[in-house]
Amino acid sequence: MSAAPKFKNNVKISERHGASEWKLEKLALLALMPLGLWVLSSGFTLAGADYGAVVAWFGSTLNAGLAAVTAVVFCLFASLAWKVIIEDYVPAGSRSGLILVSNLVFLVLAAASIFFIVRLALGSAPLPAGV
Q1: Which of 34, 106, 115, 122 could cross-link 75 (Cys pair, CB 3.0–4.6 Å)?
Q2: 112 has a pLDDT exceeding 70
Q3: pTM recorded for the entire structure
Q4: For residues 128 and 115, what is the distance between their CA atoms, to the nearest angstrom?
Q5: Residues near 106 by Cβ (< 8 Å), separated by ≥ 6?
Q6: How far apart are alpha carbons 76 and 24 in whole angstroms?
Q7: What burial class does residue 24 get, using C-beta atoms within 10 Å of its C-beta: 0-12 exposed, 13-18 middle, 19+ buried?
């Protein structure tokens, strides 16, 4: 038997953890604001630069670290945003599967971002074409 829904001020109280997800989403957005400005300024700095200059830029621990943090925070924020979109607009039967796929996509994107940032930071050669 399920318990009767709880209400506060005639509004149903969510039994899931929506408030904590909302706070996490807002914290990620707050972190993305200065990181986005940093990405924008870095993009202008690297515009037209050759491969050697980009590798040297990524060779800086600060730049590589900020790029990695930006990638991870962006993937976290995007994952939370897509979860909300799926919960709001997808019928109940296929929500959990789509949320799982969405989370896996953003996890793979974050891992690939970290992998390639580390490769550039260490000065590794680019992957051969087709790999």
Answers
A1: 106
A2: yes
A3: 0.81
A4: 15
A5: 75, 76, 78, 79, 82
A6: 9
A7: middle
